[in-house]
User: What shape does this take?
Amino acid sequence: MAGVPDWASEQLASYNRSGAAMAERLPAVLGAAELLCRAFAAGGVLYTFGNGGSAADAQHLTGELIGHYRRNRRPLPAVTLTCDPTVATCIANDYSFDDVFARQVAALVRPGDVVAAFSTSGRSPNVVAGLATARSRGATTVLFCGESGGPAGEHADVLLAAPATSTARIQELHTLMLHLISEHVDAWAAGQAPTP
Assistant: This one.
């Protein structure tokens, strides 16, 4: 492309390669969407969390479910555990930052709930502890992660691994995944079929 630096062209090429590689991951993503539909139908709640850009992804998914993705329908019960700075900083100060999610999960999560964590590396101690605690509480655990899943992957019932290694590509693919999930769940809640 004339006038476009090589590094920018390579970023686009990397994005396209990663997007194409998502085709084989679509069954897992749609399976996670079905899991959420079943949980919501049974009265379960979705809890999400992550750090930094992954916290933003967690909030994005929650917003699509409580608000709506494309259809007018009932709000769905979803909570992001990074949204209360008073609670998060209290736990971090009184215990440790590693306990920020685990302590909230221990207080709120019940069997039948779903806990979804976002982590590009899967190595964040607070994400690992949050998923481990969720599993011990009888929740179903979902991890949006990079290719390896890291230590957090050991505590995930459903692993949504982006086929990428760079943080930027992983986060871009997490957005694609959460949009696919949002479309499926949104359509289910409205009693409609998903659309392109």
Observations:
- The longest strand covers residues 114-119.
- Helices lie at 6-21, 26-41, 53-66, 85-94, 100-108, 125-136, 167-189.
